[in-house]
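batch_manifest entry 22 of 60
target: Netrin g2a
source organism: Sphaeramia orbicularis
requested by: lab member K.T.
priority: normal
notes from requester: please return tokens only, no post-processing; we will run our own comparison against the previous entry in this batch. if the run fails, retry once and flag.
--- input ---
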Amino acid sequence: PCPGPCLFLLLLPPPVRSQPVGAFDVCRSLLSSEAGPGWEFYACQPPPVNMKELMQIRVDPPGITCGNPPERFCTLENPYLCSDECDASSPDLSHPPQLMGDRERGGLITYWQTVTWSRYPEPLLANITLSWNKSLEVVDDIIVTFEYGRPTSMVLEKSMDKGVTWMPYQYYADDCMEVFGMMPKRVSELAPSNLTRVICTEQYSRWVGAKEEKAVVFEVRARFGVLAGPKLINMDALYTRMETMKGLRDFFTFTNLRLRLLRPALGGTYVQTDNLLKYFYAISNIDVPARCKCNLHAAQCLLRDATLMCDCDHNTDGQDCQRCRPGFKSRTWRPGSYLTLPKGTANTCTFTTVSNTNCECNGHSNRCSYIDFINVVTCVSCKHNTRGQRCQYCRLGYYRNASLPLDDENVCVGCQCDLQGSSSPHCSNSGLCQCKAGSTGRRCDTCLSGYTWREGGAGCTANVCDEERLLCQNGGTCLDYSSCICPANYTGERGGAQGVWAPRGSGELGALLLGLYRPNHRQQTPSALTQNLQNNSMLNESTHQLESSNEPGPGWTQLWVCWMLSAFALGIFPH
Ligand SMILES: *[C@@H]1O[C@H](CO)[C@@H](O)[C@H](O)[C@H]1NC(C)=O
Ligand SMILES: *[C@@H]1O[C@H](CO)[C@@H](O)[C@H](O)[C@H]1NC(C)=O
Ligand SMILES: *[C@@H]1O[C@H](CO)[C@@H](O)[C@H](O)[C@H]1NC(C)=O
Ligand SMILES: *[C@@H]1O[C@H](CO)[C@@H](O)[C@H](O)[C@H]1NC(C)=O
Ligand SMILES: *[C@@H]1O[C@H](CO)[C@@H](O)[C@H](O)[C@H]1NC(C)=O
Ligand SMILES: *[C@@H]1O[C@H](CO)[C@@H](O)[C@H](O)[C@H]1NC(C)=O
Ligand SMILES: *[C@@H]1O[C@H](CO)[C@@H](O)[C@H](O)[C@H]1NC(C)=O
Ligand SMILES: [Ca+2]
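--- output ---
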């Protein structure tokens, strides 16, 4: 029964990490209570990463990337030295799109570059589409680094449905009113009430020199700061608003981003038609700090078959943990919540019912439940004195009648261990009770020779005297194997002179081991005694094996861990 849940258990992340306040980086932790160990669930989310490493880049229109055919260009700051060359066929002179997302090592700046504006006055337009095929939540500023000057106008757009529909995210122009008909704004002017407003900013489009300012920023940090304070100290306030303010979470969510480049850097002046080789776009880097959106049901995001997937917990399922696992729909799916602070709420999907194929109880029950702690579907209310995940074991105090099939109503037979002769009411798989010293038999209701059954809870007690071997001295008479009636002037258990205790024969212990005692009332023949010692040693072994099955399985340690856990979970321990 164990290997399934056990393997799963070993694959779980170590549960002993403590939960830092408000970090939401752990989905569950192990708790022990009076009812045994169990899980406590928390809202959780994957850590942020720079998503540039995982983005698909596409540039439009076709042929916008320079170098095919090879082309000369110059720069705004060196307009008359047009000796630079872009050549797609040369590794050193080519500027393909992937150089926007590469890791630059050794300080060498690598960048994508477009053709020059040689077709002026036709506008020089380019679209850069960044796709992740996964909903993400931006957690810090998106920074686009332009070499040779920032565009004088551009739009950042986003899609939340993998590119089906798009919406503007922010407008950038050196003159917002002229280009977009919008009042120029800064994020610092935003208040909590209009935090999700799409603005046009002139901050990143004015000419200040190509080397001085390269960055075009989509300000996320400053927006967070409107709620969480300038240093983002009060993240609780942000998390609270994320829950309560309509559209706030969506504002930071995207699956794709698109940069629509509308007009290149002009060097602070009008377009000089005599030298169009200095107008083009060049982007060396795009940082997208974001986390996988998992609806607060996963603490990590995995790359599977080149697709980002949330590693869903809380019995949720799907790329974004956006639904309950099959069989766990007893209430409708809900995202996890940042509230109540600081730990949030997991809103775990819970077990409902399982199909008959999953609820297999060998005919001893028709109800199952799910134990999240060991991720196991288990039978409940096993009848006919059975127990276990599939009602496949006998309750303690019962043993399996091996000649009956597992689904027989009478498969579990009461041990009926003799209360006085046994040290426990439980027996082994084969029905052997655990006998106290001196008693024997399957039910421990028989005495070894040298022992005599006494009522009143005493069970088998060692004989003090008998008629043959443990004779009473000095003419005493043995009474009921337990005392000698001494002649006058003699005392002692066996009637030894002046109270000296002097048993005759080879001594009790030796006699017992050699099997010398004569059969008696509730006593046995020597061969039966030997037999019984064997049966008892088998009993010792089988006692140890009582809870493990005969199926081949994992090693002892695992079995033990597993047994402990299942035992708690399945209520195996006797009451
Ligand atoms: C860029 O994308 C927009 C929106 O889909 C489209 O209208 C426009 O034609 C594209 N521009 C280029 C140069 O492909
Ligand atoms: C996008 O993700 C979905 C899973 O939501 C997957 O089925 C599909 O294959 C992925 N597409 C690509 C192009 O990777
Ligand atoms: C946002 O609201 C604040 C106060 O309500 C106002 O001063 C500011 O101009 C607004 N910003 C925008 C971009 O609308
Ligand atoms: C086990 O089952 C068989 C077949 O029904 C029966 O004959 C036997 O008495 C049972 N043994 C015990 C110990 O109940
Ligand atoms: C000991 O066990 C064997 C079977 O293993 C059985 O045949 C025998 O009767 C048992 N002896 C006693 C005294 O219980
Ligand atoms: C017991 O012993 C004493 C002396 O030791 C003796 O006087 C007495 O007669 C004895 N009694 C019997 C009944 O033998
Ligand atoms: C059974 O186990 C007990 C304790 O584990 C031990 O003292 C005893 O000697 C064992 N008996 C046999 C017959 O192996
Ligand atoms: Ca680069």
